[in-house]
Amino acid sequence: MHHIYCPYCEEMREEEEYSYTGEAHIERPKDPASIADEAWGDYLFFRANPRGIHHEMWYHTAGCRRYFNATRDTHSYQIHETYKMGELPAVTAPTKAALVADKAKAAPVKDKAKPKTKTKAKVTPEEQQGDAS
Ligand SMILES: [Zn+2]
Asked: CB of 80 within 8 A of CB of 71?
């Protein structure tokens, strides 16, 4: 049995009290009449289906009967946070650029076996004399 924290009731309640209502943070186009049919269709019908961090809208059906948002990992089902409508999530999915950077860091370095040889600085005879005194 999962428990979900309702940000309005401010307590953990059983999952059965809630209803999942869809993806969060879907912004309605400001002037639907002026956008192309394809853009309107995208707004109406297409939603993200990520494997990992996902922001969702939930409804506290058997409680305060209010909508709130949750950040849930779709792979592990772990709910990282819940927050009130109008608030922004604290937990967000890493961007593609960040993922690429992490892979580059984790990749083994091929030249690791070869130690870099330091080039000896050329010392002029005048400098050698200066060190000796
Ligand atoms: Zn509630």
From this structure: yes
